[in-house]
Write a structure and sequence with these properties.
The protein is an alpha/beta fold. The mean pLDDT is about 95. α1 packs parallel to α11, α3 crosses α4 and α9 crosses α10. The longest helix has 16 residues. The protein contains 13 helices and eleven strands. The chain is globular, with a radius of gyration of 19 Å. The strands form three sheets. Strands 3-4-5-8-9-10-11 form a seven-stranded parallel sheet, with helices on one face. A two-stranded antiparallel ribbon has the order 1-2. Bound molecules: NADP nicotinamide-adenine-dinucleotide phosphate (NAP). NADP nicotinamide-adenine-dinucleotide phosphate binds next to α11.
């Protein structure tokens, strides 16, 4: 019999979801070629295992990932919590580059486009993917709140925001979740964003909780080991001298994994689960995978309880990581703090 994962409330008054969601981005974009049948089977297997939060964005393959998800969403509309995002606008640049767009008029057109591609009347959780500091956040969240009033969206979320931006947004309309990068390798948001979310009753949805696969040990040197179109080849942490230095930091993760007869990836996910207790808020990571065996492995990670001694062993890792999260950090929350 399949053992289903536990559930959590996604922010005060938010929907109940499995404590681990599924990131769907890699199924259409960013991480090289996909076996579409296996990816579809992975969506079904995730649902069997109690995963209910499925994460996409209009930007993932310029709408392709939303279109890819549509048949699965149609088959399971009432069983899942569907999250998508707006803000990365292809139309204002040269047709290739994306610009960040938080204009209310753009938000109104973006939601209609996402609803159409996903084949739904309502999006359960609608995120602002990136902040455009040229538009006051109150204006953008005001436009998002109108979408809730119109029934096009049920709950609101923000991605890569500062604590001040979260507070300003939450004052306009309740925010159910903040989605930001959080993992053993990336802990900047613990200083201000996570405490603010805990105080406001907002859930944290860690993206790239497996460090884009690096924390599993699946690769070390992105340029040498990953395919030509793989986005990770552009990321400073996984390239040049940083790659080997950062891979060496996984030693304590492997040691803890061995003690639990688990994989390093499961320990990375179990560590995030523990942060829910540390900070007193719901934490619902969304590891991305296109393979059934990995969704089985990742969800099993929710059943691993790390000891305080193990947390202490893992504590020094993030401070030693070398290289930025992105080649261009200008759209991240850290650039505005
Ligand atoms: N808000 C934002 O700005 C933002 C940014 C990035 C991502 N996201 C969201 O967050 C989700 C997750 O992030 P992510 O996909 O970037 O990174 P991630 O979840 O940290 O890692 C995904 C990578 O790890 C591999 N993987 C997954 N489980 C594994 C396992 N058990 N063993 C070995 N390898 C494993 C996957 O390969 P396979 O697919 O081949 O298994 C994929 O290459 C995305 O899908 C997306 O929905 C949001």
């Amino acid at each position: 019999m399949t053992q289903r994962i536990a559930t959590a409330e996604l922010g005060t008054g938010g929907p109940e979801v499995g404590v681990q969601g599924l990131g769907c981005m890699g199924m259409s974009w960013a991480y090289g070629p996909t076996d579409t049948d296996e990816a579809r089977a992975t969506l079904e297997r995730a649902l069997d295992l109690g995963v209910t939060l499925f994460d996409t964005a209009d930007a993932y393959g310029a709408g392709e990932n939303e279109r890819f998800l549509a048949p699965f969403v149609a088959a399971h509309r009432d069983e899942i919590v569907l999250a998508t995002k707006f803000a990365l606008d292809f139309s204002r640049g040269d047709g290739y580059r994306r610009t960040v767009n938080n204009d209310p008029a753009y938000i109104r057109s973006a939601v209609d486009a996402s609803l159409g591609r996903l084949g739904v009347d309502t999006i359960d959780l609608y995120y602002m993917h990136r902040r455009d500091p040229n538009v006051p956040i109150e204006e953008s969240v005001g436009a998002m709140a109108e979408l809730v009033a119109a029934g096009k969206v049920k709950h609101l979320g923000l991605s890569e925001v500062t604590a001040a931006e979260l507070r300003a947004a939450h004052a306009v309309h309740p925010i159910a979740a903040v989605q930001s990068e959080w993992s053993l390798f990336c802990r900047d948001l613990e200083t201000a964003v996570v405490p603010a979310a805990a105080e406001l009753g907002v859930a944290l949805v860690p993206y790239s909780p497996l460090g884009r696969g690096f924390l599993t040990g699946a690769f070390v040197h992105a340029e040498k080991e990953l395919g030509e179109n793989d986005f990770r080849r552009t990321l400073p942490r996984f390239t040049g001298d940083n790659a080997a230095a950062n891979a060496a930091l996984l030693e304590p993760v492997r040691a803890v994994a061995a003690a639990h007869d688990a994989t390093p990836g499961q320990i990375a996910l179990a560590w995030l689960d523990r942060q829910a207790d540390v900070f007193g808020l719901p934490v619902v990571p969304i590891p991305g995978t296109r393979r059934r065996t990995r969704v089985e492995e990742n969800t099993a990670g929710t059943r691993i309880a790390l000891t305080d001694e193990e947390l202490r062993l893992l504590e020094p890792i993030a401070a030693q990581v070398t290289g930025d999260r992105y080649a261009d950090m200008s759209n991240t929350a850290g650039s505005r703090e």
